[in-house]
């Protein structure tokens, strides 16, 4: 349950990353084996951290080139010629140490040199002329819960779910707010998920805005959010609160911006820690 999530100790995080780096594939089997070792972690925390590390590994190790695409296609043709074989792309992705959706994308770049067309085929496999290949690409994408369009939809859905959860919590507390759509209609280009109409205090820290992050926060992604989003929110609206619903690395509490520009939480604060203020027009 998200409500039981607490900041993660650095030694646990480092051990997790070390074990992850030993993996030779990112299949569901490999994920489940690692999950057994870290069964003490909340499922959502494990899933978010594992997915985040897969994304980074793909960015660091994957190289897009015609020669790689050609080699992948040769491997595919060899295995696909055996009609007894199924789920060829997922099998080959495991042997190459990349995600099935990424292997499929590289494969299609050999079939369709036009990058735009290859991207369209990943999103809509019915556009692929070779129906056997189309079926294999479809299977590869649907069996990949870490990378590609299917994984993107999952992440977007989870993000929306937790934004709605936060919105509901605010309404239950009778805390009025302006959401992203309202703020953008007022001309703001970068906006938090919720700007409070009247500030509140959480554990005596004044909150003007709240940002919902349905993921695990570590130093790398937090640093990115600080640069691209959070500093802008602080400059425009003052101090706020960031909720990493699936937990965050405990060392983030030691960074200079935390407890100055904003506070971090892993769930919506309990009622007893919140102080409400009334709007007092002059």
Automatic annotation (TrEMBL):
Subcellular location(s) of the protein: Cytoplasm; Nucleus
Pfam assignment, any one: TPD
Keyword presence, Transit peptide: no
GO cellular component, one term: cytoplasm
Alphabetical list of InterPro entries matching this protein: CDIN1 (IPR029404)
Keywords: Cytoplasm, Nucleus
Chief location: cytoplasm
Protein name stated in the entry: CDAN1-interacting nuclease 1
């Amino acid at each position: 349950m998200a409500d039981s999530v607490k900041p993660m100790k650095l030694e646990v995080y480092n051990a997790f990353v070390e074990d992850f780096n030993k993996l030779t594939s990112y299949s569901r089997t490999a994920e489940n084996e690692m999950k057994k070792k870290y069964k003490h972690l909340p499922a959502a925390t494990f899933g978010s951290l594992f997915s985040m590390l897969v994304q980074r590994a793909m960015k660091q190790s994957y190289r897009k080139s015609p020669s790689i695409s050609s080699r992948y296609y040769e491997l595919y043709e060899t295995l696909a010629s055996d009609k007894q074989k199924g789920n060829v792309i997922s099998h080959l992705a495991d042997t190459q140490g990349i995600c099935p959706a990424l292997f499929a994308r590289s494969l299609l770049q050999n079939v369709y040199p036009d990058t735009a067309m290859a991207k369209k085929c990943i999103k809509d496999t019915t556009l692929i002329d070779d129906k056997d290949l189309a079926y294999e690409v479809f299977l590869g994408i649907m069996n990949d819960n870490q990378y590609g369009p299917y994984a993107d939809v999952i992440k977007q859905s989870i993000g929306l779910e937790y934004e709605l959860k936060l919105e509901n919590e605010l309404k239950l507390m009778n805390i009025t707010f302006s959401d992203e759509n309202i703020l953008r209609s007022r001309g703001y280009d970068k906006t938090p998920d919720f700007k409070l109409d009247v500030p509140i205090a959480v554990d005596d820290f004044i909150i003007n805005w709240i940002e919902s992050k349905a993921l695990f926060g570590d130093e790398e992604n937090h640093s990115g959010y600080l640069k691209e989003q959070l500093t802008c929110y602080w400059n425009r609206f003052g101090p706020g609160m960031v909720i990493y619903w699936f937990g965050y690395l405990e060392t983030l509490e030691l960074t200079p911006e935390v407890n100055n520009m904003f506070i971090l939480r892993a769930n919506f604060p309990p009622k007893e820690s919140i102080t409400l203020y009334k709007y007092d027009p002059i």
